[in-house]
Amino acid sequence: MSMFLDTLWLIPVFPLLGAALMMLLGRHQYLDPQEQSGPAAHGHHHDGGHDQDLRPRQGLRWLIGPLCSGFVLLSFLWSLGAVLAGRREQVLFTWVAGLPFPAFDGRMVQLTADWGYLLDPVSAVMILMVTGIGFLIHVYSIAYMAHDGGLYRYFGCLNLFVFFMLVLVMANNYLLLFVGWEGVGLASYLLIGFYFKRKTATDAAMKAFLMNRVGDAGYLLGLLFLLSIFGTLRFTAIEAAAHPLLPWATGLLLLGAVGKSAQIPLFPWLPDAMEGPTPVSALMHAATMVTAGVYLVVRAEPLYRLTPEVGGVAAGLGAATAVAAALMALTQHDIKKVLAYSTVSQLGLMFLALGVGAYWAALFHVVTHAFFKAQLFLGAGSVIHALDGEQDMRRMGGLRRRMPQTFRTMVMGALALAGWPGLAGFFSKDSILTAVWAASPALFAAGLLTALLTAFYMGRLCLLVFWGEYRGGRHVHESSKRMTVPLWVLNLGSVGAGWFAAPFAGWLGASAEPHSLGIMAASGVVAVAGLGGAYRVYGGGAGHGWAEGEGGLARWLRAGCGVDGFYQLAVVRGMARGGGAWLAAWDRGVIDGGVDGAGWLGRRLGAISKWSDTWMVDGAVRLTAFSVKAASFPVRYLQSGMTQSYGVVIVLSLAAMAGWYLWRSA
Amino acid sequence: MHYVAVSLGLLLIGTAGLLLRRNIVIILMSIELILNAVNLNLVAFARHHGNAAGQVFALFVIAVAVAEAAVGLGILLALYRNRETVQVDEIDLLKW
Amino acid sequence: MTLDTLFFYAFTTLTLGGAALAVTRPSAVHAAIALMVSLLGVAGLYLQLTAEFLFVTQIILYIGGILLLFLFVIMLVNLDAGRGLRQFHRRWPVGAAVTAVAGVVLAVLGSRVQLPPAQRMPETGNVELVADTLLQDYLVPFEVVSLLLLVAVVGSVLLGRKRA
User: Could you read off the pLDDT of B38-96 as tens digits, one per residue?
Assistant: First the structure.
């Protein structure tokens, strides 16, 4: 078994291999003839919802999906072997070799980082989750994407994502983690913009990328703080100790996590990210990538334990996000947007747990949430696929009889998310609520409210989609086995994962607090009440509830509480207008303030290098430039770009040379 | 010696064409004329010196002229496709 | 006046007259025809200089090859559209003056050159002589030129492609 540990480095190599194969050879027409015509202009162009490939198989196109899925499966099996074999920290090579730079207090620290992998319980959980769920979603995608052009691009990016996600969770230092962090951002950008002929998709991709940049800036600054404080970035080498600057480091890292995990105020990119193909939403924007923020905080757990005030901020943000996003989910018409806001809300719950110090509970919720949210997204994908790309729940309904497999799995997933007693979501949510109760009753109330709202909007979703009469006009039929089988496999997790809370906590070296019967009862009652409420409003089929209305509040919530509008106004339009007075003031006050703060740090850190930069490097460069400019003063104007002017010069110089020769010989 | 005079005349006509005309094709032709003037000179001196080195050199010049004409005309075609003009003074992209 | 001198002046007239026409005719096709005349004159001069091989090469390569290429391109880009336009560069006096200066300087230079006494050509045939010189003394440049031609072929194909 130690073979798997010795070859730990192979785990991310498999999907990288797949990505490289796809990116390098994918455009070859044998592999993907349809790419010649590009992807469909609108997301779905299925032939009446048929899953079987109606066209004759072209070239080796059919091989792409299974090949890439196979790489991920290999990765999964390998990591399973490694996890069963034990723990290991494996340094492959020195990546950044000793870059000395002055810390804030004048000490010189070495910026060193290895390219190394760390397999410990926390990363093991994430690795298995990423590869396992990743594999299922790959399999599902084979059928789902069968009719789309650019298949190689799709699977190549998906494999690339798995690679970077594995680098992210296996990294043994903060710098390598950042590589994966940026890499998944790139893969996310590529896949959100997969249907690049659709402007909304490319805009959404851009938005996700830019919003993540804000968080990433925080991450990088946090990294510098950490390096200054501890002199190393390696997880296992950092000896947590209180330090006056530590809150800065953890706070900035938290900003990075907030960006990646779509918390207030950086959440609007996630609902927009639903422009990508649905399996992508399931894998990246629900199950794995967005939980990277949670993973980061869990990774830095010893540091956060020392800075409870930052934890307080995280808890507050999480609670606010959880409630607000749940309210927003309540009013969405688009089935994927409901799930997207629900993801934001659940991530909020995880941050709440992190904030109160229940790290294992947050991670546990990450795992269970990955199961049922992936299941829900894939189920939604199956519905959308069957309806030719219809995403509006107002034009669904009554699909219970037409799509029995999808119906069953999706309702199970919804119940799990709503926290039906006995299912996965119930236990993980309960773990969080138990921890929160010990910390603060107000936050507990927020968590309970979120649970209630969650149950309500999941009930609403299921009732609108599966009960009542069908309100659209298409021929609907069940998706193929290749799509429903992954749903059932995920269902196992959604149903069963909850029972392993205590072993899970034990494995992570934490102790699960005993479940209090009162809290269990409260969360159970809340879940049932939410579902019941949903049935009361939507039981009759098409919804006539307040959430369907066009009232001001509903519209406002549906639009994401106007955060988008705010960004549009303050950032996009402000910039476009070239900076009004207000924007200039904002710029000076807030952004410049931040930049100045960073600059102050940079100045302190780099006093020496700055001096040499200004006077030696810059000076030399400017001197060269100036002397060239001065020397070229009259000559420059000879260069008119006219070929014949050059010809004149050539002939003239020829004549001059001949003349000089004459003069010499005369 | 008369050959050198002819060569000089050819060279001057070629130079004049090179410097005065606007049409790129004719400018390329002028370059051919200049190369021919050089060749004539080379052959004349080869005759004078009584060996074939000059003639071989002229052969090389012809080879270079062929390459020059091929590439030059290729550039001309690409240029015409992009700029719809063969007037050399309308092309001044090589500016400082 | 020997026959040789007569032919020399005839060919000179062809060469210079053709060249003069080539650089002054507004029509590119006419210019190409005039260029052909001029090249033929040069070929004749080669013949007079006992460079038979070059004479043949001149006719085959220049007139058969390069000139044909020019004509093709002229047809391709419809150069005669530019017929009615101004034919000379706006700053032509500069060019003319520079040409004149260069001509005077070169002429003076040429008139002052002291040549060594003329040698006789070897009695072997011209083609053998050229072949010996080319393939014995100048083998490496010969190969390099072949490489240059290959590059030029590839380059011009690349340049001439539709969507370059």
Answer: 999 999 988 888 888 889 999 999 999 989 988 888 888 888 887 777 777 677 665 54
Nearest to C106 among A648, A652, A658 (CB): A658
- Ordered by start, the domain boundaries in chain C are 1-83, 123-164
Q: Is the dihedral of CA A443, A447, A448, A450 positive or negative?
A: positive
Where along chain A do its domains lie?
1-35+44-303, 307-561
The reported pTM is: 0.62
**Which pLDDT does position C108 carry in this prediction?**
84
B91 touches chain C (CB under 8 A): no
Indicate if the pLDDT at residue A13 is higher than 80: yes
Phi-psi group of A52: left, alpha or beta (phi > 0 → left; psi -120 to 50 → alpha; rest → beta)? beta
The ipTM (two decimal places) reads: 0.86
Q: Kindly report the CA angle at A222 between A217 and A226, in degrees rounded to 5?
A: 150
Q: Chain B contact for A635, CB < 8 A? A: no
The predicted structure's pLDDT at residue A609: 59
Distance CA A609, CA A277 (A): 47
- CATH annotation of B2-90: 1.10.287.3510
- Domain ranges in chain B? 2-90
Contact at 8 Å (CB) between A191 and A158?
Answer: yes
Report whether B69 contacts C70 (CB < 8 A): yes
Continuous H helices in A231-358? 246-260, 269-272, 278-282, 292-299, 301-306, 308-331, 335-355
| Chain C positions in Cβ-Cβ contact with residue B69 (cut-off 8 Å) | 66, 69-70
Q: What angle do CA A125, A130, A131 make, to 5 degrees?
A: 105
CA proximity to A288, closest of A446, A161, A428: A161
Strand A88-102 relative to strand A108-119, pairing: antiparallel
Q: Residues A485, A337: contact at Cβ < 8 Å?
A: no
Peptide bond between residue A271 and the one before it cis (omega within 30 degrees of 0): no
Q: Give per-residue pLDDT as tens, A171-205.
A: 999 999 999 999 999 999 999 988 888 888 888 88
Distance from C-alpha of A618 to C-alpha of A195, rounded to nearest angstrom: 45
Give the 3-state secondary structure percentages of chain A, helix then strand then coil, rounded to 5.
Answer: 75, 5, 20
* Residue of C94, C101, C112 with shortest CB distance to A655: C101
Question: Of B59, B53, B39, nearest to C121 (Cα)?
Answer: B53
Give the list of residues 6+ apart from residue C141 with CB closer than 8 angstroms, or none: B60
Q: Considering only CA atoms, which of A175, A160, A299 is closest in space to residue A233? A: A175
DSSP state of B89: G
Taking CA–CA distances from C134, the nearest residue in chain B reads B56
Search chain B and give the residue with CA nearest A638: B96
Q: Does the structure show a pLDDT above 90 at A162?
A: yes
DSSP A27-68: TSTTT-GGGGG-S-SSS---STT--S--SPP-TTHHHHHHHH
CA distance A75 to A187: 18
What residue ranges in A548-625 does DSSP mark as E strands?
Answer: none
pLDDT band at A574 (very low <50, low <70, confident <90, very high): low
pLDDT in tens, A478-503: 888 888 888 999 998 888 888 888 88
pLDDT band at A29 (very low <50, low <70, confident <90, very high): low
CB contact C107 to A (< 8 Å): no
Render pLDDT for C149-163 as a digit per residue (tens, 0 to 9). Answer: 999 988 888 887 766
Query: Are the Cβ atoms of C98 and A661 closer than 8 angstroms?
Result: no
Give A101's strand partners: A109
**Residue A465 carries which side chain, given as an amino acid letter?**
V
Among residues A311, A323, A496, the alpha carbon closest in space to that of A422 is found at: A496
With CB atoms and an 8 Å threshold, state whether A659 touches C95: no
Q: What is the DSSP letter of C115?
A: P
Smallest CA-to-CA distance from B13 within A651, A522, C64, A116 is with A651
Is the domain defined by C1-83 classed in CATH 2.60.40.10?
no
